Amino acid sequence: MYHPRELYPSLGTGYRLGHPQPGADSSFPPALAEGYRYPDLDTSKLDCFLSGIEAAPHTLSAPPPLPLLPSLGPETAPPPPEALHSLPGVSLSLENQELWKEFSAVGTEMIITKAGRRMFPACRVSVTGLDPEARYLFLLDVVPVDGARYRWQGQHWEPSGKAEPRLPDRVYIHPDSPATGAHWMRQPVSFHRVKLTNSTLDPHGHLILHSMHKYQPRIHLVRATQLCSQHWGGVASFRFPETTFISVTAYQNPRITQLKIAANPFAKGFRENGRNCKRERDARVKRKLRGPEPVATEACGSGDTPGGPCDSTLGGDIRDSDPEQAPVSREAASVPAPPCGGPSAEAYLLHPAAFHGAPSHLPARNPSFPEAPDPGRPTPYSTAFLELQPGPGGSAYQAAPSVTSFAPHFIQGGPFPLPYPGPGGYLDMGSKPMY
DNA sequence: TCTGCTAACACTTTTGAAGTGG
DNA sequence: ACCACTTCAAAAGTGTTAGCAG
Fold first, then answer.
1. Rounded CA separation A256/A245 (Å)
2. Which CA distances in Å does A57 have to A60, A71, A225, A426?
3. Which of A138, A211, A227, A229 could be a cystine partner for A174, CB 3.0 to 4.6 Å?
């Protein structure tokens, strides 16, 4: 685990997030740097949806210089994760770091599709140092690492020209947000529901990426103590070098494919003993050509323990060969959850934008939110993603109007606005009452 | 011809509704 | 009526593959 204060001992606790200096990254050709400033979290861009949050206005000073971004590939020894923040004492650790490192050592690739594809491995982190009583939001976004487009050369990735123009920046808000520090610290926080797409007109709010480009996920933690203020109480921004990846529409490196099949329970069918393994597929093709025959089976059954479900917080990459990352079994899942084990209904009512539109993602009641929502709050929205308006040149974030929470023009995609339920009321999501 | 993208496919996992029993 | 548990079907998430477009 890395503590931000160890990384930036000279910064103290009150500094502002800001843009790094492109020139500081030696792996980033100056010619490509134009228009590709690394957009670290700009506090102003969050005002649109954080306006209901926080405590005393926090004065933030100059941003620290960013360390070099990592390059992808087996030759790099990952530097410590980077963190920028004005939340003293808060630190984040990547829970599934070993898995990420395995992928990173080969050169992580993430499939992106028009409909949206989940990340695997997913970002799963543990947080410490939060104020147990204060509320926080967890955000995730993905930013380009450099200004290059990449190409698979049979053995490795190489830059092959200038990157495509920057796409709209979207932020994924963890469904539990806002929740108390105690809630976030109780168990690892998983972003396994994040989806990546290459559709620039994506209506679902997924994070939009270009194929064959290198990206870096970032996790932001925002303090939110009072729900009706125009200010927020600080922000911490983290990124883990081993989570850098290249987006693709089809896997290029067969070693990555093998790793994904081995580690992702959904791909179990493609394992050596799976019914969808190459041997079986070939056999099926032969059978098709010969005509119908009884289907065989058991011999090729996986025999593995079924991978279990993941809740909104714990879920993510699960590898059934790894006991430490063993999925929660159905039996285990039936055990009563801890008081803050699930997402919160109040969190939804207060920040419905934090939840996906699908009913399956609806939160469970969370007693850590005893108070009813403010009836005077503006209309919320039903998407876990916010699209942030790029500033001039497409690289900087523009200050958002902070007059209302969830300013409609800052949010794109999804069936909203939805009617805001009064205190104790229901939100109509697909005609089903919530709680 | 090569490269990148898409849709269809078969398979597995996840989720929620319905049913059952205490 | 309520709760806990089980069963089942539908939805969603996988990588593979063939075909298409530039």
1. 11
2. 9, 38, 11, 33
3. A138
Nearest residue to B3 via alpha carbon and C1': A151
Q: CA A62 → CA A16, A20, A266, A332, distances in Å?
A: 6, 11, 45, 48
Output the distance from A430 CA to C10 C1' rounded to whole Å: 16
Q: Which two tokens stand for residue A360?
A: 């399956």
Output the distance from A144 CA to C17 C1' rounded to whole Å. Answer: 30
Q: What is the pTM of this model?
A: 0.63
pLDDT per position as a tens digit, A118-170: 999 999 999 999 999 898 999 999 999 999 999 999 889 999 999 998 887 88
Residue A283 has phi, psi (to 5 degrees) of: -65, -40
Distance A360 CA to B18 C1' (A): 17
Query: pLDDT (tens digit, 9 = 90+) per residue, A380-434?
Result: 233 344 444 333 333 323 222 222 222 222 222 222 222 222 222 222 222 222 2
What span, in angstroms and rounded, lies between the C-alpha atoms of A216 and A141? Answer: 8
Q: Residue A44 CB: number of other CB atoms within 10 A?
A: 16
pLDDT above 50 for A59: no
- Is any atom of nucleic acid chain C found less than 7 Å from the CB of residue A111? yes
